[in-house]
Amino acid sequence: MTKVLGIGNALVDLLIKLEDDALLEELNLPKGSMTLVDEEIKKLIAEKGVHLEKDMASGGSAANTIHGLAQLGVSTAFLGTVGQDETGDFFYSDLEKSNIKPLLNRSKTPSGLASTLISKDGERTFGTYLGAAIELSGNDFSDDHFKAYDILHVEGYLVQNHELLETILKLAKKAGLKISIDMASYNVVEDNLEFFKEMVKQYVDILFANEEEAKAFTGKDPEDALHEMADQTEIAIVKIGSKGSMVKRDDEIVFIDAISSNVADTTGAGDLYAAGFIYGLINKLSLEKAGYTGSLLASQVISNIGAKISADKWPGIISQVKQMHLL
């Protein structure tokens, strides 16, 4: 049985539904971006949004992908750092109830919180307080962390800590794992471009990006970006929102249509696409079917608030995926 290890920032999402985008401008948070904030700004976001509708859920890009894989029956684990607080307990218990093996460090620093500001059009903007999550370091890893797994999925947000990401990728490659990385945010790519390119070229087998991230990585439009990315890795995926996605492996290129859905919140769309695509690869589906599985999961998560697909939808999704295996 293929086992997948996810490594990333262990964050709890505070989901805030905006009445308009004025608050984004007031907080100086570019719409659609992920901006790191300190504890003061974290508290300011909570104060400014006190009157708005909100919810809480465990999150973090890699953790969301691992959650999707676990719901599809894949054996998974997640490694990150949380605080010794109620928020950290919440994150730990959510992994367990989702059949994900928790490999969590516990810190005296408060747990990380991603304030997710959801615009009327479903676009999400993150003001992320990393807290304990940022204490994950290369010293926390050894060969033993990777021996039991076949695939590593890591979020691009970790590129902000060069030593950490390079250590993880080196150890995973040494252990023979396939390495999958999601670029995660265009501004993070821009700020760490040369290092990111070096890591991709040396270690990464599967590279996910949306249109903006692909542009930041290559300076090119989606299709040309796909070709450049595929020259540096085994499989390259560029997601282009409502237009679908493109995948390239060697000389094979496929275009996958998006699946229409009523958009409530785009949070987690890319993360769940990655879960579906990786699931397809694990089950030796064609690139087209793997991409379709990714699109299916993405269409389901954007129809509700939050970065996870609601429990009542999974039986139907699993039925559709199993049927596709027979086609």
Q: Spell out the helices and strands N to C.
A: EEHEHEHEHEEEEHEHHEHHEEEHHH
Total number of beta strands: 14
Largest sheet strand order = 6-5-1-9-10-11-12-13-14
Helix content: 25-40%
Globular, elongated, flat, extended or rod-shaped: what is the shape?
globular
What's the number of helices? 12
CATH architecture: 3-Layer(aba) Sandwich
Strand content: 15-25%
User: What are the segments in which pLDDT stays under 50 over at least 5 consecutive residues?
Assistant: none
How would you sum up the major sheet?
A: 9 strands, mixed
Description of the molecule:
The model has no long low-confidence stretch (mean pLDDT 92). The chain has a single domain (3-10, 59-110, 131-325), classed as UDP-N-acetylmuramoyl-L-alanine:D-glutamate ligase. The longest helix has 15 residues, at 287-301. α5 links the parallel β9 and β10. 39% of the residues lie in helices and 25% in strands. It has helices at residues 22-26, 39-48, 61-71, 86-97, 162-174, 186-191, 193-203, 211-218, 222-230, 269-282, 287-301, 314-325, and strands spanning 3-7, 11-17, 34-36, 54-59, 75-83, 100-107, 112-118, 124-129, 151-155, 178-182, 206-210, 235-239, 245-249, 252-256. The protein is built from twelve helices and 14 strands. With 327 residues, it is α/β, with parallel strands linked by helices.
